[in-house]
Amino acid sequence: MSPRTIRVLMVGMAFLAGLVLCFGVILLLAGPSAPPSQQVAAIGGPFRLVDQNDRTVTEQDFKGRPFLVFFGFTHCPDICPTTLFDVSEILRKLGPDADRVGALFVTVDPERDTPAALKDYLSSFDPHLSGLTGDAAAVAAVAKAYRVYFKKVPLDQGGYTMDHTAIVYLMDKEGRFVAPFSLKRATDAAAADLKKYL
Ligand SMILES: [Cu+2]
Asked: Could you read off the pLDDT of 98-137 as tens digits, one per residue?
């Protein structure tokens, strides 16, 4: 082979090696990550809790209805009452359609939030709200399924408060996660958005 042929061959091989490297990287990038639909489906899932009327409630009770889920606790100073107020306004706005949706307030403080405590607390809000509690393990399991963080924080003056994720989740009629549900908009707009999933 002439030196020129060798040079041409080497350039050709370098080009091919570059291509292989390129495709290898693309395959690596495309390969292991799941499609987005599979990732969002990982929020939510089966649960078994007790509501403010001492009834056992599972995700099956909401089959056929879109529902909102959020986590909190009755001793919460601001975020939970504000969220419950906003959701109550939306439910009121829905009128008769409020019977066709669910709104679940799951406590992250089952120690204090017994069914009776939830019933008392929720009497200030829309009657369509379900207040859900259970034993510590059941609450931890549902929080984990919704990727909700919560933590008990001791207070200086005694007692404790709870840190918790404050996202409101919108689930569809099949119990699948749709998107976080924004309360930072007019009640009309939020109610209209929820109606789309009826
Ligand atoms: Cu709260």
From this structure: 999 999 999 999 999 999 999 999 999 999 999 999 999 9
Q: pTM score, two decimals?
A: 0.80
Distance 139 CA to ligand 1 centre (A): 15
Q: How far is the CA of 63 from the centre of ligand 1 (A)?
A: 27
Token readout for 151 is 């933590």
Q: Compute the distance from residue 108 Cα to the ligand 1 centre, in Å.
A: 9
Mean pLDDT along residues 48-60: 97
Q: Percent helix, strand, coil in the chain (nearest 5)?
A: 45, 20, 35
pLDDT digits (tens, 9 = 90+) for 138-159: 999 999 999 999 999 999 999 9
Asked whether the beta carbons of 144 and 136 are under 8 A apart, the reply is no
Residue 76 token pair: 């919460």
**Residue 100 C-alpha to ligand 1 middle, in angstroms?**
26
Beta strands, E only, 3-149: 48-50, 56-58, 67-72, 102-107, 129-132
* CA–centroid distance, residue 72 to ligand 1 (Å): 4
116 Cα to the center of ligand 1, angstroms? 18
